[in-house]
Design a protein that fits this description.
Strands 6, 7, 8, 9, 10 and 11 form a 6-stranded mixed sheet that branches. With about 400 residues, the protein is α+β, with helices and mostly antiparallel strands. The relative contact order is 0.08. Helices cover about 30% and strands about 25% of the residues.
Length: about 400
């Protein structure tokens, strides 16, 4: 079928939609030409050439498995789905693949109007449809269609689970503005696979030339994102093994440069670091002197599409007292993770060097019970017990816990 406009099928799931192959024709002629007249003498030879192509080769090229290696086809098909189905457009904008996450399905389409943060998949989807003016799916069809698109179209490993507290889908979560900006949407990822067209002066115009080397397997990077809650960073969490079946694979990096120590505090720094894995260095000032932390890339971490997403590093801290500590296999998979890890361990070391005193967010002993200091008012410290109860106490009633 040839069409100047997108062809919409009824629904974006099912056997027919999975077998749909869209070949974009986006190269516009510079001037009107009579192709029939120009190619009149070539048609017999062209027809014979086409008829001589074996049926097996034609089938192989048009088969979904082969067409999924063509970035232009993948991008056009995905954009066509987004234009014809609000569920697909919502997935592209609001859903992230995370093998270790589980997000509640929910059943309240008016969750957004009740105030607070939307936390369920159905609530977020309904909010998107209301904002964009589309008609949302019913709750009965929402979960099956969401699972179908995630599994069949995107290749994500998702699983629906039922618990006493409701229904969840394991393998996906909602995108968090600000925290997940470095994770591309599926449309952005597919756009990045296109090969730019080179103009006559050697510059790129950023458009596709319609060709592909077939090296892509058509799957979106299944980005694994370590917890960014560095307040819980410890030796145990740093040594956590991330090379499992549901997480990125690890390979030996091709080389590490020692010439330009740097940091990866910004997304731009992180991208350049993936290309040129230099040894990272951070100088942390402290009352006792400068603390120097370095991170040497040891193992490349790649996603399911074998694209590097970070490195497992050997991190070393040199303290002003002459002490030195090293933690192996630290996964640095996003901008800022090196700085956060370096400062976290430096802070813990400093706290051990100074005489213990009450501080907010510090653990303490009160009346034989472990509490957390959460505030201060009128000369007294506010502490929170394990039960959640809070109380105000004097400084002399608090003491250093054995684990602090």
């Amino acid at each position: 079928m040839l069409s100047n406009y997108p062809v919409f099928l009824s629904g974006n799931v099912g056997a027919i939609k999975r077998r749909e192959v869209i070949f974009p024709c986006i190269n516009l002629p510079e001037e009107a030409r009579s192709l029939e007249k120009e190619f009149e003498t070539e048609l017999p030879a062209f027809t014979n050439q086409v008829l001589s192509i074996p049926d097996e080769k034609v089938t192989a090229v048009l088969a979904p498995k082969e067409s999924k290696k063509i970035p232009e086809c993948l991008l056009t098909a995905w954009q066509s789905r987004m234009r014809g189905d609000a569920l697909v457009a919502w997935i592209n904008e609001s859903v992230i693949y995370d093998p270790n996450a589980a997000c509640a399905v929910g059943n309240n389409k008016d969750e957004a109007s009740q105030g607070g943060h939307v936390t369920t998949l159905f609530g977020s989807y309904s909010q998107y449809c209301q904002r964009e003016g589309g008609k949302p799916r019913t709750l009965r069809n929402f979960s099956p269609d969401l699972e179908e698109i995630c599994a069949s179209v995107l290749g994500w490993k998702v699983e629906k689970r039922h618990t006493n507290t409701g229904k969840f889908i394991k393998g996906i979560r909602l995108r968090v503005a600000g925290a997940d900006d470095q994770i591309p949407t599926h449309e952005v990822y597919l756009t990045g696979l296109l090969k730019p067209t080179m103009s006559s002066d050697g510059s790129s115009d950023g458009s596709s030339d319609g060709s592909s080397d077939g090296s892509s397997d058509g799957s979106e990077p299944l980005l694994y994102k370590e917890s960014d809650g560095c307040d819980g960073l410890s030796d145990v969490s740093l040594k956590k093994d991330i090379s499992t079946d549901d997480r990125p694979d690890a390979t030996t990096p091709t080389g590490v440069s020692n010439e330009k120590p740097n940091t990866i505090s910004t997304k731009k720094d992180f991208v350049f670091w993936l290309i040129d894995p230099t040894i990272l260095t951070l100088h942390i000032p402290s009352p006792l002197g400068e603390i120097v932390c370095t991170a040497k890339p040891v193992v490349t971490v790649v996603n399911a599409a074998k694209i590097p997403v970070g490195f497992n590093c050997s991190m070393t801290w040199k303290f002003p007292t002459g002490e030195q500590g090293t933690i192996e296999d630290v996964p640095l998979l996003a901008a800022g993770t090196f700085e956060d890890a370096a400062k976290k361990i430096a802070k813990e070391w400093l706290e051990k060097q100074e005489p213990w005193k009450p501080q907010i967010n510090r653990k303490a002993m009160y009346g034989g019970e472990l509490v957390i200091i959460v505030g201060r008012w009128d000369g007294k410290w506010q502490v929170e017990f394990a039960s959640g109860r809070k109380d105000y106490v004097k400084s002399n009633k608090l003491s250093k816990p054995s684990e602090d």
